[in-house]
Design goal:
Layout: E1 2-8, H1 11-21, E2 28-35, E3 53-60, H2 73-87, E4 93-95, E5 99-102, E6 105-115, E7 118-125, H3 143-155, H4 160-169, E8 178-181, E9 184-187, E10 192-193, E11 199-201, E12 204-206
Parallel strand pairs: 1-2
Antiparallel strand pairs: 2-3, 3-7, 4-5, 5-6, 6-7, 8-9, 10-11, 11-12
Length: 210
């Protein structure tokens, strides 16, 4: 089931609050035409106007593939979104662990939260408009159509092994990027992608850029 709102401050917060107060139940999806105070990866804002995608969904942990490592659940769901876009002609690729890119520019991202036994994930995509220094999706598609196709893909319960095998193939795109690890700038060129979705870098296991 998908609920679609005209406007909301944050689909992610709205869904979490609904789960906590008992007005919303898993599984379900929640989208909005306009998001005024959305939350992106690493606490960055992710808001925008009509035409872009702002979508959250929740699912019981027991309904996920048995081999899915929960620490890499955002990778799994991001890869499913990428499959939906790719099948419609997009050249979107995934920057580790869960950002959507076209060429060198970010067009969206995924975040996830665990509430008791429920997984809440949210993602946004620049489809119609973009902020400065960001990219925009390279195909024409309605936000609701992406959400619906994505949830259909979730219901298929593809194994982590199946989804991750495709994710690994394009990981080489990440090698040109760097990020900060414990205050030090490190190159992704030196990173090894592990089978659980983590990175092995400087003798450390890294699961996110937070």
């Amino acid at each position: 089931m998908i609920h679609w709102l005209d406007e909301v401050d944050s689909t992610h917060r709205y869904l979490i609050e609904g789960l906590k107060n008992g007005t919303l139940y898993a599984p379900m999806g929640l989208g909005a035409d306009i998001q005024s105070h959305g939350v992106g990866s690493r606490g960055n804002p992710w808001s925008g106007g009509k035409g872009n995608l702002f979508f959250s969904f929740c699912v019981e942990e027991k309904h996920l593939p048995s081999d899915l490592p929960l620490a890499s659940i955002s990778i799994y769901f991001s890869a499913l979104v990428k499959e939906v876009l790719e099948e419609r002609g997009s050249k979107t690729w995934l920057k580790w662990p869960n950002d959507f890119y076209i060429n060198e520019l970010k067009i969206g991202g995924m975040i996830s939260t665990k509430i008791a036994t429920i997984i809440v994930c949210s993602f946004g995509l620049n489809i119609h408009m973009k902020p400065e220094n960001f990219g925009i999706l390279d195909i024409s598609i309605e936000p609701y159509d992406i959400a619906r196709a994505f949830l259909n893909r979730v219901e298929e319960k593809k194994s982590w092994k199946n989804v991750f095998s495709k994710y690994k193939i394009e990981f080489a795109h990440n090698k040109k990027f760097s990020f900060h690890l414990e205050g030090k700038l490190v190159s992704m060129a030196d990173a090894v992608l592990c089978d659980d979705g983590s990175l092995e870098l400087e003798n450390k296991k890294v699961y996110s850029l937070r």
